[in-house]
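Cross-check.
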Amino acid sequence: VQLQAFGGGLVQAGSSLRLSCAASGRTFSTYVPNWFRQAPGKEREFVAGITWTGGVYYTDSVKGRFTISRDNAKNQVFLQMNSLVHEDSAVYYCAAGLQIGGAMIYWGKGTQVTVSS
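Predicted model, tokenized:
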């Protein structure tokens, strides 16, 4: 499975962005897609994950602002980010594994999100 994240950019605080993750490989639907992020000088952290049945999980700091979704037919995963704040600035990574969060099996190249305050 190969993953590629798209949709990052430079936005003002309070704005929205929608990240997309395109996956190749027919077995992608059997994995649990997750979004992680890493800010400069900080460890990479879990942001959101979605199970194949549609169960969604978020880190506390993004609850109510971010929404993860998936389109199994198109092998895509999305992260809708609303009410962005400066602290959301990071490189966002799409990943896939066997569970929500934790160790992932596949990682994509990240996409930079910068939120100006």
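The chain is about 0% helix and 50% strand. The chain has a mean pLDDT of 94. Passed to J.P. for a second look.
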